[in-house]
Amino acid sequence: MQPDKLVMMANQIATFYESQPEPDRSAGTLAHLKDFWDPRMKAALKAIAAAPDNGLSPLALAAAQNL
Asked: Which residues contact 62 (CB under 8 A, 6 or more apart)?
């Protein structure tokens, strides 16, 4: 899958969880990635998160770094 597509999808998930109370924001975003993304997608997202100017929102970036 293309990196820009993964970034877009991760940011969409994070946008959904932004409306939740704080403990649920981070936990929900991370849980969604863990539960529904396949290992290749998770590995690619972690690599993207390690790069500067990756395009990830702060919430998506935090979730990617905790995968």
From this structure: 26, 29, 30
The predicted model gives 58-64 an average pLDDT of: 96
CA distance 21 to 47: 28
Q: Give residue 53's domain range.
A: 3-65
The CB-based long-range contact list for 18-26 (8 Å cut-off, 24+ gap) reads 18/59, 25/59, 26/59, 26/62, 26/63, 26/66
Name the amino acid, one letter, at 51: A
CA pair distance 9, 33, nearest whole angstrom:
10
- For the whole model, what pTM was predicted? 0.93
Q: Is 20 helix (H, G, I), strand (E, B) or coil?
A: coil
Instruction: Give me the number of domains the chain comprises.
Output: 1
